[in-house]
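#lab-general

N.A. 3:47 PM
ok so I finally got the sequence cleaned up, no stray characters, all 181 residues accounted for. can someone with queue access submit it? mine expired

B.Y. 3:52 PM
send it over

N.A. 3:53 PM
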Amino acid sequence: MLSYTTVKRYALGLLEAVKHTKNPEEILQELKSVSSFFKKVDGLNEFLDCPKIPPEEKVKALGLLFKKRPLSSMTENVLRLLFQNHRLPLLEQIIRECEILFLEKQGKINALITTVIDLHPQEKKQLVSFLESRLQKKVEPEFEKDQQIIAGIKIRVEDQVWDGSVRKTLQNLETDLIEGN
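B.Y. 4:20 PM
back already:
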């Protein structure tokens, strides 16, 4: 629980800070890029998590790593704060929560829609319209393909999942057979 509470607190703070910038989405995207970069470089997380290295040194090192495309002062400040408070491992969760809160303030909601095949643009449009009428919010869809669901559709909106996939149906059938229902 402490982790989610901490993530939420930092996300609210980040959202408050970026709303005073010209392009809040740009800052969030930059933080996403940094987070992705951290995962790709071997040994970087160990360096960044080391308590013996002062936060300022870590920010300088990142400045050198991002020399071709310098980080904004807002991103540097966020990273410095996370370094100082030993919260860098929560960066990805903080960004995700901040995006959810940002969309919420705009009356929007994210929906991850998973199918086996690419949907036709008209089908996507109809599905988004259906979700918007059901959820009473503007839906920001993200479509992905996953062969493992076999057929059907799976929709995730925040902590709700509607799973109409054949895979889920087969899993439910297996459970019923094992339990003797």
